[in-house]
Design goal:
Blueprint lengths: L2 H20 L14 H23 L8 H28 L1 H16 L10 H21 L11
């Protein structure tokens, strides 16, 4: 069994478990869209993409094994992302959702870029990341009535 198939199976179990857990989210009925809508939407999208990945793992031929150096480099990036995620969680209470999320997503974006690019080529993606972060905050607070952590600035 390949890594993609194992990851697909684990992700499907994850989606099913958390979709079931989303049925216990308290809905006040204040809006047409309940607080459980967004988690269920994301879990559904993740499940669909996981099924596509799982099917593709059967259709494509086995790739040549990666070089050991590339594998070690990728594993190092994974640990860096875990550390950044821990810092993100710790910073939510102090900096708030908008600032912490923007910094976290920006660092992940810069970390996983395949090659170095000039600063000007990062302007539009960074503005997009900021707009997405603020939009998510507005949707959660104004549409879903789920209040996100506020920091010292916002």
């Amino acid at each position: 069994m390949t890594k993609e198939r194992i990851a697909g199976a684990v992700l499907l179990v994850f989606c099913i478990f958390f979709y079931y857990q989303s049925t216990s989210i308290d809905t006040k009925g204040l809006t047409e869209i309940s607080a459980a809508f967004f988690p269920r939407l994301l879990l559904g999208l993740i499940a669909i993409l996981t099924i596509v990945m799982f099917i593709q793992s059967f259709l494509r031929k086995e790739k040549v094994k990666e070089k050991k150096r590339d594998k070690n480099q990728k594993e190092g990036i994974v640990w860096i992302i875990f550390a950044l995620f821990a810092l993100y969680i710790l910073s939510l209470g102090f900096l708030g959702f908008i600032i912490s999320s923007f910094i976290f997503i920006t660092l992940i974006y810069l970390l996983i870029l395949p090659e170095k690019r000039p600063f000007k080529s990062h302007v539009i993606p960074l503005i997009s990341l900021l707009v997405i972060t603020v939009t998510l905050s507005v949707i959660f607070q104004n549409v879903l009535n789920v209040y996100l952590p506020k920091g010292i600035f916002f």
